[in-house]
Design a protein that fits this description.
The chain is of the alpha/beta class and about 350 residues long. The protein folds into two domains: about 5-155 and about 295-320, Response regulator (Rossmann fold), CATH 3.40.50.2300; about 160-290 and about 325-350, Response regulator (Rossmann fold, 3-Layer(aba) Sandwich). The chain contains 13 helices and 16 strands. The chain has helices at about 5-10, 15-20, 30-45, 70-85, 95-100, 105-110, 125-135, 160-170, 185-200, 220-230, 245-255, 290-305, 350; strands at about 50, 50-55, 55-60, 90-95, 115-120, 140, 155, 175-180, 210-215, 240, 265-270, 285, 315-320, 320-325, 340, 345. The strands form four sheets. The chain has a six-stranded parallel β-sheet, sandwiched between helices. It has a six-stranded mixed β-sheet with strand order 9-8-10-11-12-14, sandwiched between helices. α1 packs across α2 and α10 (about 220-230) crosses α11.
């Protein structure tokens, strides 16, 4: 394993300069800092704590954290499983809080004693992943894909299965199909929306903007969604809800309002784990194993960090999703069902007057 002396030799600077770079000392110029960071990343340098080299990998949110998400819990379960098969420990870092304004990402990670990072990103923070990859610091993006060849990633390939899910609703006779997406945009939800659009386009239908809903990915927001959709005019007869927590809140609220699923409203959800089997009616869902995403990401990162030639290790893994048809989908009602939040049903003729 490289040490501070070999980094200094590779960069053509003194050991003291390497130390100052790792501690973000203001006396080191930008060009020298860049040479030292590049050498450290190329050699796989890991700083020492006391008398031993660090062996930490890190889970990093490039934007707001979402540890309260069931998806993130499943990711961490898979990461923990893979971690047990390596020599590494895991840290959780927040660059938004701890990274100094004039510090590169590599400097920040090395200062924290981290040798590689799993990156959790959104559409708004993808640039952070690009910057880290450009610096050459070992990284794997989890749950999102990139076109740039130097970025490693593991993601759930939900586009074809999302299309299949909407095609299933179309085959049952639904023409007014809504989709619910997270307020926080990422490539996962972009894929699910694209699958929805492709399925409608294949049968000659233009998506209706008023049937496309964005809500926070929380259970209470699923309840509010159902109240809003079913009490408004011209409700859909089927919904594709692309967040697990939202679909649980939506199904529970529908039952509280006396809405019969699927006779009044068909619902296809998204399931990162096994929630579909614990719901009543049993949920028709696009399924992915989020714990596998976590496992594959950590395993890939460990391989990259341990490789003698890191450039020879490229990770671009698409983990397939699948559709399970259960009890929440069926033919559409003769006319769209409109139900007020208190459970009062509004007859079709009342809607038209």
């Amino acid at each position: 394993m490289a040490n501070i002396r070999t980094v200094a030799s590779e960069a053509g600077v003194s050991i003291a300069t390497v130390s100052r770079v790792m501690n973000n000392h203001a006396s080191v110029g930008r060009s020298v800092r860049s040479k030292v960071v590049t050498a450290a990343n190329r050699l796989g340098y890991a700083p020492s704590v006391g008398k031993r080299s660090t062996s930490y990998l890190a889970f990093v949110y490039t934007g707001p954290s979402s540890f309260n998400s069931p998806y993130d819990a499943m990711l961490m379960a898979g990461i923990a499983e893979a971690l047990d098969e390596t020599e590494f420990d895991l840290a959780i870092l927040n660059p938004q809080r701890d990274k100094k304004p004039d510090e590169s990402y590599s400097q920040f990670f090395l200062r924290k004693g981290v040798r590689g990072v799993i990156l959790r990103t959104t559409s708004g923070t993808r640039g952070v992943c690009l910057a880290i990859a450009e610096e050459g610091f070992p990284s794997v993006v989890i749950g999102s894909r990139f076109d740039q060849p130097d970025i490693n990633y593991v993601y759930g390939d939900s586009l074809p299965t999302s299309k299949q899910a909407v095609e299933h609703l179309i085959s049952l006779g639904h023409t007014r199909i809504g989709i619910t997406l997270s307020l926080v945009e990422d490539s996962d939800h972009t894929d699910r929306l694209e699958g929805y659009r492709q399925a409608l386009a294949d049968c000659g239908t233009e998506p209706e903007p008023r049937l496309m809903y964005r809500v926070p990915a929380q259970r209470p927001d699923g309840a509010q969604l159902i109240k809003r959709i079913l009490s408004g005019p011209h409700p859909p007869t089927a919904l594709f809800i692309t967040d697990p927590a939202v679909v649980i809140g939506a199904v529970n609220q529908a039952r509280r309002m006396g809405v019969v699923i699927p006779e009044d409203l068909s619902i296809i959800g998204f399931d990162d784990g096994d929630d579909r089997n614990d719901m009543y009616p049993q949920l028709t869902a696009v399924c992915q194993d989020a714990s596998q995403l976590g496992y594959e990401s950590l395993s890939a990162l460990a391989r990259i960090v341990s490789a003698k030639d890191r450039d020879s290790v490229s990770v671009r893994l698409a983990v397939p999703t699948w559709l399970e048809v259960h009890d929440t989908t069926g033919p559409p009602p003769d006319s769209p069902v409109r139900v007020l939040p208190d459970g009062t049903r509004v007859q079709q003729q009342e809607q038209d007057t």
